# Entry
Amino acid sequence: MNHSDANRFQDFFEESKYTLLKNYLYNYRLRKMAVEKSLEHENIKLILEVGSGISPVMTRIRLSLFIAC
# Structure
């Protein structure tokens, strides 16, 4: 882990174990299921997902455009 004083929170994203754990957290998995369920009967052509890009919520990758913040 890089222990720079600039942004300690960023250190977590550089650690692969953190990313794996984050993706298995109950809240993250619940959110993914809820989004998929709400869109299951929609005719979607393109999805815009905004976030860090570490743990996308959408599982329809080929329909997704990711904007990293």
